[in-house]
Amino acid sequence: MITALPRLYVLVPIAFALVLAGCSEQKQAQQAPPAPQVTFAKPETRTVTDYDEYVGRFAAVDFVNIYARVSGYLEKINFTDGALVKQGDLLFSIDKRPFQNALDQANANLARAQADLDFAKSDLQRAQTLLDDKTSNAISKQAFDQRLQSERSARGSVDAAQAAVHTAQLDLEFTDLRAPVAGRIGDRKVSVGNLVTGGGGTNTLMATVVSIDPIYFEFTYDEASFLRYQRMAKAMGDAGKAIPIHIGLIDEKGFPHAGKLDFVDNQISADTGTIRGRAVVANPDAIFTPGMFGRIQVPSSSPHPALLVPDVAIGTEQTRKFVYVLAPGDEAQVPQMKYVTLGRQIDGKRIIVSGIEANDLVVVNGLMRIRPGSKVVGKPEQAPAPVAGAAPAAAAAPKPAN
Length: 402
Description:
Strand 18 and strand 19 form a beta hairpin. The strands form four sheets. Strands 1, 2, 17, 18, 19, 20, 21, 22 and 23 form a nine-stranded mixed sheet that branches. The protein has a six-stranded antiparallel barrel with strand order 3-12-15-14-13-16. Strands 4-11-9-6 form a four-stranded antiparallel sheet, with no helix packed on it. Among the domains are: about 35-45 and about 305-380, conserved putative lor/sdh protein from methanococcus maripaludis s2 fold (Beta Barrel); about 50-60 and about 210-300, Elongation Factor Tu (Ef-tu), domain 3 (Beta Barrel); about 95-175, Helix hairpin bin (Helix Hairpins). It is of the alpha+beta class. It is built from four helices and 23 strands. The relative contact order is 0.18.
């Protein structure tokens, strides 16, 4: 026979369990972690200029094909393939002997024509004296006219001979082919001893020279950008002035090379809907080469104030960007999320086009500690400690506006 346990023996374990559970909840409440700390700061206000970026190619200001202007055997090459040449440097020499002979012959013909002219002038002068003597009929009017015609013919022969001399002199000069512009020359197209042809429609191409300094940078941009630039230039009163630009190469960070936009085409392409722009850049060290790709930065606005925050303060929610903003005070609080529109990056900071105000306290450190709906404790960001030996901040040079 089984005897039922007294009711008291059943209630005691239950009560004991409830007491233990209450103690556990109290212990957990006592051990709850404090609100995480984050660092906040106001956005930096800086005067900036907005820029558009395009890809383009460098092009030579001058591109010259060097052709033979006279025919003859190539006697000497006076440059190294790919070398930098100055304007007027001797590049090729063609055998001069046939052209020197032609010049000598032309000079001889000129001397003979000049002698004929001198005789014709003397003969005409004698005829004029006889004709002026009215007391004698030593010469007829017809004979005088014949001598006058001979003098004019001799004068024309001298002019023709002088022209032949000039032509022979030019042909002799053309045997020396010189650099028409300063720049870099390509490889030679002919070798010494070859017969080169000139003076006709099949002139021999000898080499090419492209100028290096300065150099053009050509790019295209769309119609909407063209209209924006036109209106901006008109509003700033800069219409017709060269717009400053900056260029960067494919292996460079940023845009370290300065130049000016000096030309915009006079029509928009009907095929692509774009217009061609051209900038000119100094190239004293021959860093840029015609045909090389590059990136160009063109100002798209006048200087204006902008708000900047560190890149680490910006979070991502699918396709939208946001920052967390705190209310003034040191108490624990739930940060407010604000969606923002981003601009370009400057010195590790990001321009905020819209979404925050200048007095907002933006969380700049500890973004990963924030959980939706949870509280945080904000602390102001500390200024970086001065470097030993550095000049005082008041004496430092002001940072140029971007």
